[in-house]
Amino acid sequence: MKQRNIMARGVALAIGSMLPFGMAACATPPHPAVTAQAPVASRTDVPDRAAEAALAEIVRRHGVVTAGFGVIRDGELVWERYLGEQSPGVAAGPGTRFNVASITKTVTAETVLRLAGQGRLSLDEPMVGHWLDPDIADDPRRLALTPRTALNHSTGFPNWRFFLPGGRLAFQSAPGERYSYSGEGIEYLARFAERKLGQPFPDLVQAVVLGPVGMTDTSLVAQRGEAATSIARPVDEAGRFPGYYCRPAEQGGGCRAEDSYAAADDMVTTVRDYALFLGAVAVGDGYGAAMVADRDRVQTDKGDQAIVDCASLSSALCPDQQGYGLGFNVLRFGDAVILEHGGADWSEVSLGSIETPSRSGVIIFLNAPNARALAAMPELIEQIDPGSPFLGEYRRWLANARRP
């Protein structure tokens, strides 16, 4: 897992999008409709007592500090469980807020889609008229940057500029050319939206997503003092707490400024709030059917970063299409579409998915040193979603992380 410079405001590695787009059709060739197994999110059962006991054992064995789980059926949270402590001596519960890293991007994306649905901006307008990063002021490719290229990760930007020589933002490819997962692109989009509409981006998020959906325990803004105490307390491998929105020295050190925001990383939310959000996403709340269809189609081919390794599966278990849409990974199984995103950073791993039209989904939020959380994730998915299309990806990431 890569590290980040605190000044970059996040190198959240998007699990489910992490090795994450361009306007190409999915590279995965068409396959027969799923017959051996429907998408797992369409199951109507929830974890039984044996599975719940197994979850507790996995969390204990891997040293996960705080865990929150949810199962959504027909758009409603029908099962939730919390394990571990929110902070020393305080048990985790429904009010525990988790830093969900790159899942933040889904709320940013939904904000922009709703603003587009209201006619306040267009997904295909040039962003240069309202926001231009000085680092790319002389690059003619700046003219091709649109909200769509940011949402489907085809801006051509790196994940974060500090990975580049001199720490300056630069294009790695032309906008729309290929998939290039980029937190920079999402932050660029937020700057564009707030300048075009004359409002701070967190205020836009509150007005068009958090408020209408009822997400009262969710924030993109860094909080301190009493407001932060409900956040699952992050610790390093030695059990040290560097502070909320802070990083230990070995991870680059530093803290986010109070009241600063990030559009691509560090959102805190509860299982219940994010379940409300996924339920609203499933029905396209806030915009019409045409934009739902646009959001749910594969817009960028992820190539060798595809979620499902179809070469190792029977065709019946492989999606008809897979790639990235507008703010989510998209897996299509016949008429069913699964939207998914995840996140990982030094102290968290998270996953959220929703299927349409069944409106069934899964949430897993883990607060733990990254290596422990990543080791636990495949086992936890097996208990909650035994046939999950995301299980193989987590197993591959874990295997890669354990390579000498």
Query: Could you name the CATH class?
Result: Alpha Beta
- Our Rg estimate from Cα atoms comes to 20 Å
Question: Helical content, roughly?
Answer: 25-40%
What is the N-to-C succession of helices and strands? HEEEEHHHHEHHEEEEEHH
Q: What is the number of helices?
A: 9
- CATH architecture annotation name: 3-Layer(aba) Sandwich
Mean pLDDT across the residues is: 89
Name the overall outline: globular
CATH overall fold name: Beta-lactamase
Count of DSSP E strands? 10
Uncertain residue ranges: 1-43
> Which structural class is indicated by helix and strand composition?
alpha+beta
Biggest sheet statistics = 8 strands, antiparallel
Question: What is the distance, rounded to the nearest whole angstrom, between the alpha carbons of the first and last residues?
Answer: 14 Å
Number of domains: 1
Provide the β-strand percentage band: 15-25%
Spatial order of the strands in the main sheet? 3-2-1-10-9-8-7-6
For this structure, the quaternary state is single chain
Structure description:
With 404 residues, the protein is of the alpha+beta class. Helix content is 26%, strand content 15%. The protein has 9 helices and 10 strands. It has helices spanning 49-61, 104-117, 147-151, 183-197, 201-213, 271-282, 289-295, 370-384, 391-402; strands at residues 66-73, 76-87, 90-91, 98-99, 268-269, 321-324, 329-333, 336-345, 348-356, 360-367. Helix 8 (370-384) packs antiparallel against helix 9 (391-402). The chain is globular, with a radius of gyration of 20 Å.
